[in-house]
Design a protein that fits this description.
Rossmann fold; 2 domains; 4-stranded antiparallel β-sheet; 9 helices; binds calcium ion
């Protein structure tokens, strides 16, 4: 991304540790972003709820509301708002909880500054792209995917539509485009998350998102019929 493009993006950083917050503000201002900040969960939520930020970087351990609660509350207001969580490196549980409450991505502390900048750029690139593909699309013959309202509805069913996150919609769209073959986790990370091939690949992020999608759309998530696992190869949307 060029500096001109970055200037159009505004970030909200929610972090209570002064030194880390100051470092992150410097980093992103240096890279040309407009940066806003909050030092506790309540202030973070209040600012995030305005919807004025293109991306929220959210620490887990915060005074007041913790990062998970804040993310969960943000999701109640907006399923579109991109959120990256800062988790503790050693805590797998934190990572899973973060993705389950609706974070788009996470980065573990202590993180590499370069990696964080790349993740932010990837999330912003994707969310910009997402705004261009709007409409209703038929999926696996029996569903209608509404890419604008982020819902999935069974055609010929009176059940109310399932609500999806933007990321879940993007995963389904990508699997649909490639439904003639299995799609690997690495490919999903590159194409849906926008990670560079060289970046540190975190395939667990993909698995957690797929598990969440299956819980929403499969009759029996343990024996998925729609998003099938192809052993050793990846995932495939079956028609
Ligand atoms: Ca903290």
């Amino acid at each position: 991304m060029t500096e001109e493009q970055r200037k159009k993006f505004s970030l909200l950083i929610v972090e209570d540790e002064e030194a880390i917050l100051a470092g992150l503000i410097d980093l992103f201002v240096y890279h040309g972003y407009v940066v806003d900040s909050a030092k506790d969960g309540n202030e973070g939520l209040r600012k995030a709820a305005t919807g004025h930020h293109d991306l929220v970087i959210l620490d887990v351990m915060l005074p007041g509301l913790d990062g998970f609660t804040v993310c969960n509350e943000i999701r109640k207001v907006s399923r579109e708002q991109p959120v990256i969580m800062l988790t503790a490196k050693t805590s797998e549980e934190d990572i899973i909880t973060g993705l389950t409450v609706g974070a788009d991505d996470y980065i573990a502390k202590p993180f590499s500054v370069r990696e964080l900048v790349l993740r932010v750029e990837a999330v912003l690139r994707r969310s910009k792209k997402a705004r261009h593909q709007e409409g209703k699309i038929t999926l696996a013959r029996s569903w209608e995917l509404d890419t604008q309202n982020l819902t999935l509805r069974m055609i010929e069913s009176s059940q109310s539509p399932v609500e999806l996150s933007r990321r879940e919609v993007d995963i389904l769209l990508y699997l649909r485009e490639n439904s003639h073959r299995p799609v690997s986790r690495e490919e999903l990370l590159e194409e849906v998350w926008g990670y560079a091939r060289a970046s540190n690949i975190e395939t667990r992020t993909v698995d957690i998102h797929i598990a969440k999608l299956r819980r929403k759309i499969e009759e029996n998530p343990k024996e998925p019929k729609h998003i099938a696992t192809v052993r050793g190869e990846g995932y495939r949307l079956t028609v």
